[in-house]
DNA sequence: CCAAAAGTGTTGTAACTACACCCATGA
DNA sequence: TCATGGGTGTAGTTACAACACTTTTGG
């Protein structure tokens, strides 16, 4: 492996949906600065490494998550954003189903775990701004592309999808309008299956329709 | 001035509106690689320099344009985008009125001038992709924010504004719908003045309304 | 008076909002 | 049978697209 670029890093916001909560994947930092603090997974880019590859590698090394769909959502380049020296960081965002991966702390991560978005302490550096940027990106994209495909289980009742939308958008949505919209837009496909194990009336299951 | 970051540069797409054409500002490169080719103005970022400041500086040094509103529109980080070594470039875009600035080639620019968007030869490196990215950004933003404020003269007839929209969006717009829209959205304000010097019926002048 | 550009209204459609009740099931 | 979440329809509003003629002026 060649040299790393000292002034360029990638950071990743990985969102997951679990226990009816929207969560982000954080690592506990091993080294100074900010040792033992929870922060976004991130690290340097190598000289001969495409930036997105770097993001994939970093996620794998630090958290065990691999081969997921990543999107660039911003650049963070304040001169003093990192205390030790100038680092410009490129922010990536991904959506995953937590149950799909076994978390595995590695490299400079002491621990990895999912943290509920709304009950986070202050993160180091500019990671709170990064998280905000990622959330805003997510809100923006939500109705444009079927990006939830990696956040929702394969089959789900519509009301669960609605809850997730509400969690992300942070405001309530009218149930009838929501159903009309996702169905008429062809975002989802109704299955001939009903949820089981609920305490009440079973719901029809849907799956996301991905445009060819 | 401190060291430059060898792997990080900024490039700028500056759009201008002149002679009823949408133009981009290009420099003729002084040095290898691609000496004597027209390309986007760009250069390295210094270690202690905020990225946008770098873009402002680079524009001033190369073209004489200064203190304009710049927006980040993308990152170009392909490993081999620049032949000599790895450079990640951050792309900025600006809109200016050509008549407001005197162009002044400096630094590694041999010449500077405005080039009509639709009759450009192939640009070096990935500058064509950058231009496309900037154009797409412009198309996207066009109806969202009054970004034309720096592209149109202070006072203009509505039909000129429409022409500019058509140039950018690359398709025709219905004149009545256009007028209704920009007026009802409060984008423009009608003045008590008419254009002079035209060969036909004078038009009322408008100015852009900037939201507080 | 004529050429050229300025300016003007209506109608249909699609998308969104707001809103309240009955239904099916498991306990 | 009842508590719980699942599921449905209508009406008003707003934004947009399509479309053709009259008006004003300078030459």
UniProtKB/TrEMBL annotation, chains A, B:
Keywords: Hydrolase. Residues 5-139 form the Nudix hydrolase domain. GO terms for molecular function: hydrolase activity. InterPro entries: NUDIX_hydrolase-like_dom_sf, NUDIX_hydrolase_dom, WH-like_DNA-bd_sf, WH_DNA-bd_sf, WHD_NrtR. Pfam families: NUDIX, WHD_NrtR. PANTHER family: ADP-RIBOSE PYROPHOSPHATASE (PTHR43736), SLR1690 PROTEIN (PTHR43736:SF4). This is NUDIX hydrolase. It comes from Plebeiibacterium sediminum. The lineage of its organism: Bacteria, Pseudomonadati, Bacteroidota, Bacteroidia, Marinilabiliales.
């Amino acid at each position: 492996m060649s040299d790393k670029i000292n002034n360029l890093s990638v950071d990743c916001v990985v969102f997951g949906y679990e226990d009816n909560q929207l969560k982000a994947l954080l690592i506990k930092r091993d080294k100074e600065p900010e040792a033992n603090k929870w922060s976004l997974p991130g690290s340097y880019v190598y000289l001969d490494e495409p930036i997105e590859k770097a993001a994939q590698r970093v996620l794998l090394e630090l958290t065990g998550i691999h081969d997921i769909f990543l999107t660039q959502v911003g650049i963070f380049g304040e001169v003093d954003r990192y205390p030790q020296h100038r680092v410009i960081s490129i922010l990536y965002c991904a959506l995953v189903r937590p149950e799909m991966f076994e978390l595995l702390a590695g490299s400079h991560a002491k621990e990895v775990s999912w943290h509920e978005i709304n009950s986070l302490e202050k993160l180091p550096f500019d990671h709170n701004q990064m998280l905000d940027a990622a959330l805003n990106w997510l809100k923006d994209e939500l109705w444009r592309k079927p990006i939830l495909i990696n956040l929702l289980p394969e089959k789900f009742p519509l009301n669960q999808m609605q809850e997730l939308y509400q969690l992300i958008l942070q405001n309530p949505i009218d149930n009838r309008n929501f159903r009309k919209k996702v169905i008429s837009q062809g975002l989802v496909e109704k299955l001939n299956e009903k949820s089981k194990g609920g305490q009440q009336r079973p719901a029809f299951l849907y799956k996301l329709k991905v445009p060819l």
